[in-house]
From TrEMBL:
<dbReference type="InterPro" id="IPR000614">
    <property type="entry name" value="FRMsr_CS"/>
</dbReference>
<dbReference type="GO" id="GO:0033745">
    <property type="term" value="F:L-methionine-(R)-S-oxide reductase activity"/>
</dbReference>
<dbReference type="InterPro" id="IPR003018">
    <property type="entry name" value="GAF"/>
</dbReference>
<comment type="similarity">
    <text>Belongs to the free Met sulfoxide reductase family.</text>
</comment>
<feature type="domain" description="GAF">
    <location>
        <begin position="41"/>
        <end position="145"/>
    </location>
</feature>
<dbReference type="GO" id="GO:0005829">
    <property type="term" value="C:cytosol"/>
</dbReference>
<protein>
    <submittedName>
        <fullName>GAF domain-containing protein</fullName>
    </submittedName>
</protein>
<dbReference type="Pfam" id="PF13185">
    <property type="entry name" value="GAF_2"/>
</dbReference>
<dbReference type="InterPro" id="IPR029016">
    <property type="entry name" value="GAF-like_dom_sf"/>
</dbReference>
<dbReference type="InterPro" id="IPR051330">
    <property type="entry name" value="Phosphatase_reg/MetRdx"/>
</dbReference>
Amino acid sequence: MKTEFYQTLVRQVEALISGEDDLIAAMANFSALINDNLDDLNWAGFYIVKNDQLVLGPFQGKVACTRIAMGKGVCGTAAATNTTQRVADVHQFEGHIACDSASNSEIVVPVHQNGKVIAVLDIDSPLLDRFDEQDQLGIELLVKQFETCLFG
């Protein structure tokens, strides 16, 4: 069931992003799509790599941390290691940065252009263990479609 759900979202990403060449506009609509379609979220958006740090990009949710050092917190770790970080309980993640005290679980997926990490997609939930392996695969697929639509 989740596989079909994410396949439907992939098609929506393609329809929404195809033909758009502005990264910020695409990120804004993508984060809105995620926020509108995934249940039990309290934040969905991007941090963009600028000058060896992550800078807040388009998002849906409460106010957020503006800058995150590479390698720090869940987002910085995902960017620095170029790996998806799926955290069942953020309070158990060493160095977690609590931008919103309501967040209990998180998934962060690197976004690439020409093989280089240019941003991360950060999704937070007030539920513990909100994201399972199927969610991870689905969200990674959405990010891959996002990359394909924008960068070819």
